[in-house]
Amino acid sequence: MKIPPSLREKKRYVIFDMLSDGKKIKERDLMDAIRSSGTSLIGSFGMSLCNMRMIELNGRRGILRCSRGELNKVRAVLTMVNNINDERVAIDIMGVSGGIKKATHKYFKDKKR
Amino acid sequence: MEFCDCISYKGKENMQEMLLLLKRYGFAGAIVLVKDDIFDEKIFESMIPPREFKVFSGIEIFADSLSNLKKKVYKFRRRGDLLAVHGGNDRIDRMASREKEINLVRHTEGGHGIDHITARFAAENGVAMDFCLTALIYSRTSMPAILGKMRRNLMLMRKYKTPMILSTGGENKFDLRPPRQMTALSELFGMTREESLRSLKMPLEIVDKNRRYKEGRLIRDGVEIVR
Question: Rounded to a whole number, what is the distance in Å from the CA of B226 to chain A's nearest CA?
Answer without folding.
Answer: 43
